[in-house]
């Protein structure tokens, strides 16, 4: 059966609500005045650590990465050197 | 497949009752009285330990007459702007338009679009620009507004807004894939809402 609700344009383009909401928040943060803008940009960063697991053991020590989500232009900045 | 639909529809309606709203249920007990009595018999000198439920303040059930004030909690992921503040009215930027919420408003869940949120208390109005979020209005005149980013209007830089608007309008006309078009459209929406909030 065809969908009967009118989907918002971003969902029709394949975007989820969380992505949409984060893009909106980032755009608003980029339009702030100076002291507020720098504090806001620190909020935008997400710190996460990734490690591969084999045989229920993490393979390598997890590396801390900082993830700036500028919409779909995602830049992952690695804070220490990688051994890949 | 469709012939059996009417048969399938009839039975569930009879067997399931509508679940009551959370505001219509009686408030849960904050302490377990039998535990407290047993504790006091064994250790009369120490206070019984508090459970998480005793720290929670239950919300009042739906009153029979409309209360005079609306209790608003406006929270962001990193801060709580308003926490159970009693106000006269809030105007929220829902996707269906600016919605004014007064005490006694019907229970609603509203998705918010980028826009202006204003809190009216007596003669003062506090305005915030909200990036997106949700507003839950309960039957007992409690409103919970959650947003990812909300800034007072004086923190917004008008020149950056204009630049952003021009940039995204240009991106919208030059976008090729659906995704790029959607992103550019979001940019245009947010910046025009910012513009309208600053000038209006």
TrEMBL record, chain B:
GO CC annotation terms, alphabetical: mitochondrial inner membrane; proton-transporting ATP synthase complex
Cleavable signal peptide: none
Gene Ontology MF term list: proton-transporting ATP synthase activity, rotational mechanism
Top-rank taxon: Eukaryota
Keyword Membrane included in the entry's annotation: yes
Matches recorded under Gene3D superfamilies: ATP synthase delta/epsilon subunit, C-terminal domain, F0F1 ATP synthase delta/epsilon subunit, N-terminal
Species whose genome carries this gene: Hevea brasiliensis
Chief place where the protein resides: mitochondrion
Protein family: Belongs to the ATPase epsilon chain family.
Keywords carried by this UniProt record: ATP synthesis, CF(1), Hydrogen ion transport, Ion transport, Membrane, Mitochondrion, Mitochondrion inner membrane, Transit peptide, Transport
This protein's name: ATP synthase subunit delta', mitochondrial
PANTHER family (alphabetical): ATP SYNTHASE DELTA/EPSILON CHAIN, ATP SYNTHASE SUBUNIT DELTA, MITOCHONDRIAL
Subunit description: F-type ATPases have 2 components, CF(1) - the catalytic core - and CF(0) - the membrane proton channel. CF(1) has five subunits: alpha(3), beta(3), gamma(1), delta(1), epsilon(1). CF(0) has three main subunits: a, b and c.
Location relative to the cell: Mitochondrion inner membrane
Function comment: Mitochondrial membrane ATP synthase (F(1)F(0) ATP synthase or Complex V) produces ATP from ADP in the presence of a proton gradient across the membrane which is generated by electron transport complexes of the respiratory chain. F-type ATPases consist of two structural domains, F(1) - containing the extramembraneous catalytic core, and F(0) - containing the membrane proton channel, linked together by a central stalk and a peripheral stalk. During catalysis, ATP turnover in the catalytic domain of F(1) is coupled via a rotary mechanism of the central stalk subunits to proton translocation.
Matching Pfam families: ATP-synt_DE_N
């Amino acid at each position: 059966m065809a969908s009967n609700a009118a989907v918002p344009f971003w969902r029709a383009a394949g975007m989820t609500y969380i992505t949409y909401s984060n893009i909106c928040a980032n755009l608003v943060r980029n339009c702030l005045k100076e002291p507020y803008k720098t504090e806001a940009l620190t909020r935008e960063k997400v710190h996460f650590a990734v490690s591969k697991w084999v045989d229920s053991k993490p393979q390598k020590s997890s590396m801390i990465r900082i993830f700036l989500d500028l919409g779909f232009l995602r830049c992952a900045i690695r804070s220490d050197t990688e051994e890949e | 497949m469709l012939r059996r639909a009417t048969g399938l529809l009839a039975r569930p309606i009879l067997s399931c009752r509508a679940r009551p709203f959370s505001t219509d249920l009686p408030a849960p007990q904050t302490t377990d009285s039998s535990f407290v009595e047993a504790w006091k018999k064994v250790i009369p000198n120490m206070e019984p330990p508090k459970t998480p439920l005793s720290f929670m303040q239950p919300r009042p059930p739906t009153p029979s007459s409309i209360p005079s004030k609306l209790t608003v909690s406006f929270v962001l992921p990193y801060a709580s702007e308003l926490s159970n503040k009693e106000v006269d009215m809030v105007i929220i930027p829902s996707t269906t338009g600016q919605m004014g919420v007064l005490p006694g408003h019907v229970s609603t869940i509203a998705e918010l679009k980028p826009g202006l949120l204003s809190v009216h208390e007596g003669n003062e109005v506090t305005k915030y620009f909200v990036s997106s979020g949700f507003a839950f209005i309960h039957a007992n005149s409690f409103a919970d507004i959650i947003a990812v980013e909300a800034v007072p209007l004086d923190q917004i830089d008008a020149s950056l807004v204009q630049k952003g608007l021009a940039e995204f309008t240009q991106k919208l006309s030059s976008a090729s894939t659906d995704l790029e078009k959607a992103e550019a459209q979001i940019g245009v929406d947010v910046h025009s809402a910012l513009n309208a909030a600053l000038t209006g």
